[in-house]
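Q: Convert this sequence to structure tokens.
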Amino acid sequence: MSWHRAQKRAKIIKESIYGIAAMELKKIESEAMHLSAEDRAHLIQKLVESIDSPSADELKAEWLSVAEDRAAQLDSGATKSVPSDVVLKKAQALIK
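A:
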């Protein structure tokens, strides 16, 4: 198969995939419009949360970065550790 012909086939496949995705989106939109106002509001909330909330992998990466930064601060002496009994006493005093 020639390079030109392969590119043409790839373009047709790509357009087909986008066409299917667009049809699916239209179907979802149509179905959503048949929901009650309360159900549509719930769906909107879930969709917004899915955009605004970081994924589990993103959260894991963020916490790992924080832990590495804190370990580096302790190793370099930029900060000092606090014994757990002191932290616990302070926390208990705050909730009283």
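DSSP finds four helices and no strands in the chain.
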